[in-house]
């Protein structure tokens, strides 16, 4: 285990097995439809790479660069689109993937943008969802794991752009965050 990690929450094997189950549900829903997987940088990169190899459907693949945390620990509530890349989504069924659903504002804002760009339908998929009430924002269509309301890193998720390469999801030691 990495020396900055206090505790492993979800280990590699558990993640791998859960992705197979998610993929089966996604295949059933998207089969026969023109599919585009749209993953949010950078956090969803490990997740999407591992997930889509279990989805043997014809699909296009896009990466979108958005930011809501601006390097800190809390969502700013404002989603910034960091590039002007605009894939043509007319008539397409989008699978929108992110690492984690916290406030849900990121997925809500990006879903709206993709529909504005002509997407026929947008289904949302997250590796993790925090166990918090979301009154106005909807849950994801596909959720890997529901976790407690703690800040996590690993398997794509960062703290100050570090720890994304850890193969598991874990909690940082307190002294790493305060220093
Ligand atoms: P939301 O807009 O749902 O509040 O935030 C979603 C984004 O915030 C995620 O894509 C992720 O970048 C970041 N985020 C939310 N919770 C965590 C967390 O516990 N750890 C890390 N590393 N990022 C998080
Ligand atoms: Mg993110
Ligand atoms: Mg981040």
UniProtKB/TrEMBL annotation:
It catalyses: GMP + diphosphate = guanine + 5-phospho-alpha-D-ribose 1-diphosphate; IMP + diphosphate = hypoxanthine + 5-phospho-alpha-D-ribose 1-diphosphate. One of its GO terms (biological process) is GMP salvage. SUPFAM superfamilies: PRTase-like. Its EC number is 2.4.2.8. GO terms for molecular function: guanine phosphoribosyltransferase activity; hypoxanthine phosphoribosyltransferase activity; magnesium ion binding; nucleotide binding. It is found in: Cytoplasm. Its main location: cytoplasm. Its cofactor is Mg(2+). Pfam families: Pribosyltran. InterPro entries: HGPRT (IPR050408), Hxn_phspho_trans (IPR005904), PRTase-like (IPR029057), PRTase_dom (IPR000836). Keywords: Cytoplasm, Glycosyltransferase, Magnesium, Metal-binding, Nucleotide-binding, Purine salvage, Transferase. Residues 22-160 form the Phosphoribosyltransferase domain. The keyword Metal-binding applies. GO terms for cellular component: cytosol. Pathway: Purine metabolism; IMP biosynthesis via salvage pathway; IMP from hypoxanthine: step 1/1. NCBIfam families: HGPRTase (TIGR01203). Belongs to the purine/pyrimidine phosphoribosyltransferase family. This is Hypoxanthine phosphoribosyltransferase.
């Amino acid at each position: 285990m990495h020396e900055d990690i206090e505790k492993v929450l979800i280990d590699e094997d558990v993640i791998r097995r859960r992705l197979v189950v998610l993929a089966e549900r996604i295949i059933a829903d998207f089969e026969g439809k023109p599919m585009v997987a749209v993953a949010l940088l950078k956090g969803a990169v490990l997740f999407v790479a591992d997930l889509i190899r279990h989805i043997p459907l014809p699909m296009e693949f896009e990466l979108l660069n958005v930011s809501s945390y601006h390097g800190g620990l809390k969502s700013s509530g404002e989603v910034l689109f960091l590039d002007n890349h605009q894939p043509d989504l007319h008539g397409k069924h989008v699978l929108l993937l992110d690492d984690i659903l916290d406030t849900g504002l990121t997925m809500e804002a990006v879903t709206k943008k993709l529909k504005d760009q002509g997407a026929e339908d947008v289904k949302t998929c997250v590796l993790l969802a925090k166990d918090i009430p979301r009154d106005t924002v909807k849950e994801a269509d596909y959720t890997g794991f529901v976790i407690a309301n703690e800040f996590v890193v690993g398997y794509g998720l960062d703290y100050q752009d570090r720890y994304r390469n850890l193969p598991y999801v874990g909690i940082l030691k307190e002294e790493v965050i305060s220093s």
